[in-house]
Write a structure and sequence with these properties.
This protein is mostly beta strands. It is built from one helix and 18 strands. The strands form five sheets. Strands 5, 6, 8, 11, 14, 17 and 18 form a seven-stranded antiparallel sheet that branches. Strands 7-16-12-13 form a four-stranded antiparallel sheet. Strand 12 and strand 13 form a beta hairpin. It starts with a strand and ends with a strand. The mean pLDDT is 83.
């Protein structure tokens, strides 16, 4: 309770007993989940800044990873930023710190392709972002770049990675240094 001269204003910051979020009358003017805000030693309330977002890239070409049907898990080893440390640049795996709706984007650049490479696809988690006759799609320099985005519902601690596979020839296809992977939490659930 705080007094403001002639008129008074009652503000309830915290109760001494737990109340269900559905008992609005017991919770004052508004109520929040403590996962979304914190109260410091001076009783100042602030929103938690821990909103997962990251951007990572492949720093150098990685040779001979697929082409013969081998599935290659891409390790984007250079993090431009990672607000919650949820992406591991040594394993290529993103781990959701919270349950929620996330958006992921990737651009996968492949090189050393040949016309015999009958099928190529890339996956964000278990979802194909492209699936095509990679030999026909390759340009004159025998390179191809495919990109895609997806919005997924993830449980807390669920993981996700990017994989690429090219079939039909020998294991000569490699990753180009221009490949990128990014993601961000859209909404907690």
């Amino acid at each position: 309770t705080a007094s403001l001269a002639v008129n008074t204003l009652t503000v309830q910051v915290q109760r001494s007993s737990a109340q269900a979020s559905t008992t609005i009358g017991s919770n004052g003017v508004s109520h929040f989940s403590s996962t979304d805000f914190s109260v410091d030693a001076n009783a100042f309330v602030q929103l938690n800044a821990a909103i997962p977002a990251f951007l990572a890239s492949v720093t150098a070409p990685v040779n001979n990873v697929t082409g013969d049907g081998t599935t290659y898990q891409i390790i984007f080893d250079n993090e431009a930023f990672d607000t919650t440390g949820s992406y591991d640049a040594t394993t290529g795996i993103f781990t959701a710190p919270y349950a929620g709706i996330y958006q992921f984007n990737t651009s996968v650049a492949m090189e050393n392709l040949d016309a015999a490479m009958t099928r190529g696809f890339a996956l964000i988690g278990a979802t194909a972002i492209y699936d095509l006759d990679i030999g026909d799609a390759a340009n004159v320099a025998n390179t191809f770049c495919g990109s895609g985005s997806i919005i997924l519902s993830m449980a807390a601690l669920q993981t996700l990675q990017i994989q690429v596979q090219i079939d039909g020839s020998t294991k000569t296809a490699g990753m180009n240094g221009n490949s990128k992977f990014s993601g961000a939490l859209i909404r907690r659930t």
